[in-house]
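Record 1 of the preview.
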Amino acid sequence: MFGSTINKVLLGLLLLEVFSSAVKANPGDTTWVTIYNLRQITAYGAYDTTATLPTGVRYRKMRLHYILGRYACPGSPQYCGSWDYTTQIYAKPTGKDTVEIARVITPYATDWLTTNRKHDYVIEVSDYAKSLEGPTGFRFFYSGYSWGFTITLKLELIEGVPPMDALDAKNMYEGYYAFGKTADPIENHLTAKTFSYASPATKAFLKNSISGHGADDANCSEFCSKYYDLKINGTNVAQKQLWRSDCGLNNVSPQTGTWVYDRANWCPGAVVWPIYHDLSSLTSASATYTADIDMEPYTAPSQANASGGFQFSSQMINYSAPNHTLDVSIEDIISPSKNENYVRSNPTCRNPVIKIKNVGTSIITNVVFNYGLVGNTPLSYTWTGNLNFLEETNVVFPPSLSIYTVNAANTFSAAIVSVNGTTDQNLFNNTYQSQTAPVSVYPASFVIKIFTNNSTALPNNFNETSYTLYDENGNIVIQKDSLPNATLYADTVNLTPGCYKLVVNDVGCDGYKWWANTVGGTGNVRFENLGIGNIFYNPNGDIGCQSTKYFVVANTTGLTENIARQNEIEVFPNPATGIAYIKFDLSKNQTVSYTITDISGKLLQQKQIHKMEGGYENVDISKLQNGVYFISVELENKTHITKKLIIQN
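->
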């Protein structure tokens, strides 16, 4: 049975640890400490508390679970929008620096109450091992002016030997500094600092959590990409760009605001991930050195509106020598998994993906894995590559539909068998498990329909949206790209049993249906049954840059997800100038007609359209006066659908 050999080895090591007087607890044992529990955020500012943490215990991993939720603000106050705000978590140990241990930007979450959503952000905080001992003060700082969030903070402390022992954390810079302001240049705050470390410390890392906020006339700092230079002893040693280019792929999506826009090293609803610089080769024990950060030169266009800036938390972290020479850790399972931080990759029926990290000093070139569903005969895979100390990589296992059980949840497990042809020195980080979710089962033959919206991708002038359907081996079954705007395509597919992956891409990274892009209008991608035309897959078009859907075709009936198909009419842009569009998404091909009336009911235009099911009708409104009008569409069954249109010629 899967994992039996590994379990026997682990059991033997655990027994050795239990009877060893030098070790106080079993490696792998986990302690949970709750710092806040459903604390309601009701005002801007600091929320302070204390917690008593274990002392004298060594942890191989220390994780902070930042669980964000919503509550209903009593009395329906004006400011309960739950928008994108900066939040910072500080540890305040006695006699040591108060240090920021995590930074998270809240999402646009105005719909979380009605959709019953929350999110658990998991953040590694092992750098602060010596700051998280005994009675410790904590501060949650909320930089928002709209309430409605709840915060739960929990520490997950996993006992064992870490890659290196974190010995101390000292602040280099901590604060919000104006950017581009001549009266208060940012370099006045980013001055050179002197540091040193002594045995048992052998390594020094600079850890930077930096995010840009606010906007001047050039949209700096939130929406401008700037770099910083790092100097050690006056010499430039590194340059980093402060920009997140993947906001449209956020796993906390969709959101009710402008979540898809890339920003200065942050995204709404995401962790501000720190930037690390290993200074060990540039410094030495018992010798002083200086560290300095210089921002890219910049002057705001209007000093009267130089309101942007950067939130800095720069820390010098010192570590002991590495504890292992040959040690690979399975850090996480990306898929299959129910972890909401990997929702864009799940549920899946294709290649399992795990994340590994080299936490020993030897270069890793070969790792043998066993993987599969717990209780089944494990599959085997050998990864080859070149992984240096503290580097991470994703391992993609071969496709195997046999490891997934359709429409049933299971436990997936991955285990390291050998590293570089021998036994890993540390077996306690060699196994990982995840919970799987059911995968949709669809019929072998159906119709894929795509309505393109009116968003054009330059310079080729095609529509921004495309899709590709892959089989379980990565072969393309059908692909639709370079499509014109405002067009309906319908393709019938006949699939053999297996796993399939539909990828919808939007090069504009604003999806094919997004509230903020009224000019682009609304597109649609859906699956329909043959003949009867009912829809069984019709996702939200607010996908950002991309959406992925896995499904299985099997010799199974009665499992298809059915969604009642509706007749839908949309008018855009709204307000409109010169021309407007009527988008039709009807249950069948039919003859329709439409009329345009003013607010008094006077008929101004009318037209009949033959053989309409899905598509767009251009409406010339250039001769109509500015004001409010109504477009009424009559369907074949005499149903009327009326939409309001505002004209601004």
